Each structure stands twice: as structure tokens, then as C-alpha cells.
Amino acid sequence: MSGHSKWATTKHKKGAKDAARAKSFAKLIRQVEVAAREGGGDVNSNATLRTMYAKARDASVPLDTIERAIKRGTGELEGVRYEAITYEGYAPGGVAVIVETLTDNRNRTSAEVRHLFSKNGGSMAEPGAVSWQFDRRGVIGVDRVADEDSLMEALMDAGADDLADDGTQWTVTCEAAETHAVKSALEAAGFTISSAEPSLVPSQTVPVGDAGEATKLLRLLDAIDDHDDVQAVHANADIPDAILEAYEG
User: What end-to-end distance do the CA atoms of the chain give, in Å?
Assistant: First the structure.
């Protein structure tokens, strides 16, 4: 797994414990609402909504809050209409970055994301400039205590593609559309799942071994990720564990 993937995992774990929890809830609710608007409010027939619903429940978002978000998405309740916009750019060290947003004001969000890039040593790029370096995949985190042989056997039956050990958890990848099915199969086999969602996975990574350069990169990623409209940040950086741990500390 790339260093950025570990950064994202750490952010996910911290989000439920600190002052960012309310902001995390707001982002998840927005994702549920948009999924319902685009594919309907039935979690059984709308795979995207099913994924977002499970993600929100895993983060302890109250059930009635999720249900209201679904109703806003389907039009049963009045709500703001959000638009999905993806931005591409470069971080310090030539690292490719993709930013996924949901916004009710395209001009405002574009200007603010551009400012965050430039303020932190990066630059925006034209659509398509870096997206070819990423593939949409299902990414599932499994508790590290799981036995590798047993997990591999379960994965073959579940239809997953790959298994990696990032030092803190097992990371399973599969076809994006199969994320929920693979997660359910692993849970049925007795494995503890820490996260499961479609994500953009880099096809190649850029090594960032200099501590100063890595710090600049991580500050940019954190600044963008903290924006209210930003739903996900992806980068193809490969940062050594020691540098990541020092930054997180």
C-alpha cells in the first residue's frame, strides 16, 4: 500500500474520536443524499446508496439522520442539490492528486480548492491530466489479527482480486461494484472489517523519501481533506512508514 493510503486510514480512525467527527458526519450525510438522488432511495437496488449507508452506519451516524438524508435525496423532504465535481492536480514532488467533492456552489468550491493547492505548494491541473494514473476499485480493510491463509481462502470464494499487508491491517481490493458483496462475505466468514468503500487506487506510485518534501505533501493533503465540500482525496505517493509516523506524532 502507498504511504498516502496509510495516511487516509489514519485520518479515518481519528475522525470518530476528535473534533472532526461532526464534519465527518456532514460529509457522509451529503454522500448518502446524493446517492439517493441519483439512484433512488432503495438500498437493495441502489448499490452506491447501500455502500454510503453502510459507511455512515459504521461511523455511528444516527439512523434517523441517514433516513432524512435519503428522503432529501429522493425529494420527499426539501434539501440542497449537490453537484459532484472532481479536481486534479499535483502536490510537491510531482505527486498526482485527485479531489472528489460534492458542492452546491461550483464556482466557490473551484476557487477554494485551487487556493488550497497553491497555498500549500501544489498546482491544479486540467481534467484528465492525472486521472489516468488511478483505477476505481473496492478497498476493504480487515483487522490485522486475521490469519492470512484463512483470509486468502475466504477471498477466493468472495471474488476479491488482491490482498496486501500494510503493517496495521490487511487491505483487500476487488471490483468497485463488488465491494459490498466481498465485505458481506468476509463478515459472514467471521472477519472484522474496519472500512469498505470504492476508492481510487494508483496504478503506479511516486516515492517520497525526503522528510521535508513528505511533510509539505501531507500538509497539502490534510488541508484539502479538511474542506467541507471535499469527500475524498487520492494521491499516488509512497511515503516511508517512519516519516508518516513522525508526521502523525
Answer: 20
Other Cβ atoms less than 10 A from the Cβ of 26: the count is 12
CA 70 to CA 46: how far, in whole Å? 12
Domains of the chain: 3-74 (1.10.10.200), 83-132+204-248 (3.30.70.980), 134-202 (3.30.70.980)
How far apart, in whole angstroms, are the C-alpha atoms of residue 189 and residue 159?
Answer: 14
Please calculate the CA angle 208-205-11 and round it to the nearest 5 degrees: 70
pTM score? 0.83
190-221 pLDDT, tens digit per residue, is 998 888 888 999 999 999 988 999 999 999 99
Instruction: Measure the CA dihedral 129/118/16/214, to 10°.
Output: 80
For β-strands 169-175 and 95-103, DSSP reports them as unpaired
Please state the φ and ψ torsions of residue 17, each to the nearest 5 degrees: -115, -15
- Taking only the tens place, the pLDDT of each residue in 50-88 is 989 988 998 889 999 999 999 999 999 888 889 999 999
Rounded Cα gap, residues 159 and 68, in angstroms: 34
Dihedral over alpha carbons 183, 185, 190, 191 (to 10 degrees): -30
Beta strands in the chain (DSSP E): 83-91, 95-103, 123-125, 134-143, 162-165, 169-175, 193-202, 206-207, 230-235, 237-238
Q: Are strands 134-143 and 83-91 parallel, antiparallel or unpaired?
A: unpaired
